Amino acid sequence: MYHAGIFTKDPVYRKEALQSCPEDRPLIVQVLSLCHAKLKVPITCKIRVFHTIEKTVEYAKMLERAGCQLLTVHGRNIEQKGRLTGIANWEFIKAVKQVLCCYYYY
């Protein structure tokens, strides 16, 4: 519980603590890698887009490398919720789809 308290209050701690190496940043990579290695169920993730396509694509690739097997991309950024919902940006979703390994089951 000590780590959880600091983790929620200190952005530096969130960025630097509980990491095994620079390649494992952010912490979600470590969690995904561990789940993928230890569990026998598919690992799924849902993300919102970042403000640039490049950052969104890089984050999606990082999740895939960490073990994410099904990724849902919400076409809006973090500020677009509630009254500020706006229209989803399909270009971001398309860019992620084009770079990840895709397997379709119909």
UniProtKB/TrEMBL annotation:
The record's section on InterPro entries has: Aldolase_TIM, DUS-like_FMN-bd
According to UniProt, the name of this protein is DUS-like FMN-binding domain-containing protein
Which domain of life does this protein belong to? Eukaryota
Entries under Pfam families matching the protein: Dus
Keywords, ordered alphabetically: NAD, NADP
- Where the record annotates domain DUS-like FMN-binding, the positions are 24-99
